[in-house]
Amino acid sequence: MKTPKSLVCLALSLVAPWGQAIELIGQTVSLSSVNVVAEVNGVIETMDVEVGDKVQQYTVIAEIKKQDFQFELARTTANLELAQAELKLKRSVYERYQELIKNNNLSVNELDIAKADYLNAKALLKLAQIELDIAQKNFEETSIRADIEGFVVSRDTQVGAWVNQGDLLYRLVNIDTLTVRLLASEHDMSLLSVGQSIELWAETSPEQKVVASIARIGVEMDVQHMAYPIEVDIKNADFKLIPGMSMYATTDVSQITTSVK
Fold this sequence. Notes:
Blueprint (H helix, E strand, L loop, with lengths): L4 H11 L5 E9 L3 E5 L4 E6 L6 E2 L4 E5 L2 H36 L5 H33 L2 E3 L4 E6 L6 E2 L4 E6 L3 E8 L1 H4 L7 E6 L2 E13 L10 E8 L10 E7 L9
Antiparallel strand pairs: 1-10, 1-14, 2-9, 3-5, 3-8, 4-7, 5-6, 7-9, 10-13, 11-12, 11-14, 12-13
Helix pairs in contact: 2-3
């Protein structure tokens, strides 16, 4: 029968001499991952990176076919120019009517109509500008960029596929800094504290040890493992560690005393 991981964790901690050291096991995880999604509807035209590729932040990693968005951008640009010309005409009429009414050559009603036309043209110009801004934004979002520097861990669509706004395209993860999520028994919790020094090593490279400090201690039990999460952040500039790797850790508790009733 396979021994549950949480029981292995507890067994490891009890092997160490009481009051000397606690040994824990866990895994590396990345807290810096992002989902890259489509911001507009359309057909995927290019996808430039594959799983495992390293990407720089803001690099274009995929593109949605631009033709329809170019047409919309041209249409809204033309509408804005028409609205600008209309406003210029209505303003000129309104200003001329203001002069005419001073000489009693125009009725108040005619002036009111000219003013309403002028105000309407101003509002239409604002709407035209909003439509152009939306068209410009949509056009720019046909180029999908990496939100972070990191590695591609999944590619979720293909060239030629139709995607809707919000559909997942890629998942990226940054591993410059990784979090080691360890599991501690209830017994060990009284001997652990934030800031406490702890030594860690990967199961695959036991000779390469890293000294860090406990960053966070969970206050709620992980019911799946029946243990409490202990998190340690470590630098990973050489990318030797990747998310999901098994990790071991030990921390000296020889200076810590606890009272047992």
